């Protein structure tokens, strides 16, 4: 089932693996300001992501081994991935505790939390799958590009650390375990649930791409009041 989800989204994933933000990370042309923006937003995202994994682990009738693995994955998101982020924050000398979630962060997290909280276990697994699988995939694509470029370019060490984490063997093991859970859940799912799983997977793939769009563009919330006042003066 999981492979079928991937295949259906393959054209979108192919575009995402060549996202300007990701390519610029590898060739060293991405401004640190954009990466800093991304890391802050990702830290906010990971809090909800970990909570969703924990919620799935607490669902009724979940196999005890799967429940433990989901809780372990939640802990990994909070500790391992966030440790990477905290290392960046310490180096930059910033405190992201009270950072504001930007539009596409809110869009993505609110969607996945809603699905996990209100839909069945299989659908909840599907909506989180792209965060695992797409990240591993782009990480490996970026690793290959980095190897191809060799010493011809220079990039900040933080970019290499990010690539190393998501292209690494430990993260790949986590992804494969999660894919197996999705496949197992799909075995007992009816056609309606399978259809919803496909829809959630595709939507999260879109939201993954939009998350990097947001960082590439340094998206901000519109200043509605200021824009309204400006409009009044123009009239």
TrEMBL record:
Regions that span the bilayer: none
Record-linked Gene3D superfamilies: Heme oxygenase-like (1.20.910.10)
A single GO cellular-component term on record: cytosol
Gene Ontology biological-process entries: thiamine metabolic process
Name of the featured protein: Thiaminase-2/PQQC domain-containing protein
Natural source organism: Ditylum brightwellii
Matches recorded under Pfam families: TENA_THI-4
Lineage: Eukaryota, Sar, Stramenopiles, Ochrophyta, Bacillariophyta
Residue span, Thiaminase-2/PQQC domain: 17-215
Signal peptide location: none
Xref: CDD domains: TenA_C-like
């Amino acid at each position: 089932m999981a492979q079928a989800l991937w295949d259906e989204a393959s054209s979108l994933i192919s575009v995402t693996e060549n996202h300007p933000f990701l390519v610029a990370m590898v060739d060293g042309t991405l401004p640190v300001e954009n990466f800093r923006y991304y890391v802050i937003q990702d830290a906010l995202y990971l809090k909800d992501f970990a909570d969703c994994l924990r919620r799935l682990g607490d669902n009724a009738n979940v196999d005890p081994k799967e429940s433990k693995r989901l809780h372990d994955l939640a802990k990994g998101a909070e500790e391992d991935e966030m440790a990477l982020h905290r290392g960046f924050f310490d180096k930059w000398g910033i405190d992201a505790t009270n950072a504001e979630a930007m539009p596409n962060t809110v869009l993505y997290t609110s969607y996945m939390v809603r699905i996990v909280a209100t839909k069945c276990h299989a659908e909840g697994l599907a909506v989180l799958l792209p965060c695992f699988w797409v990240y591993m995939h782009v990480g490996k694509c970026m690793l290959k590009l980095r190897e191809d470029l060799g010493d011809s370019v220079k990039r900040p060490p933080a970019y290499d650390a990010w690539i190393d984490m998501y292209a690494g063997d430990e993260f790949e093991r986590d992804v494969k375990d999660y894919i197996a859970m999705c496949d197992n859940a799909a075995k007992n799912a009816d056609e309606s649930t399978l259809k919803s799983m496909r829809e959630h997977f595709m939507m999260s793939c879109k939201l993954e791409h939009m998350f990097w769009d947001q960082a590439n563009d340094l998206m901000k919330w519109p200043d509605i009041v200021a824009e309204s006042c400006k409009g009044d003066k123009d009239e």
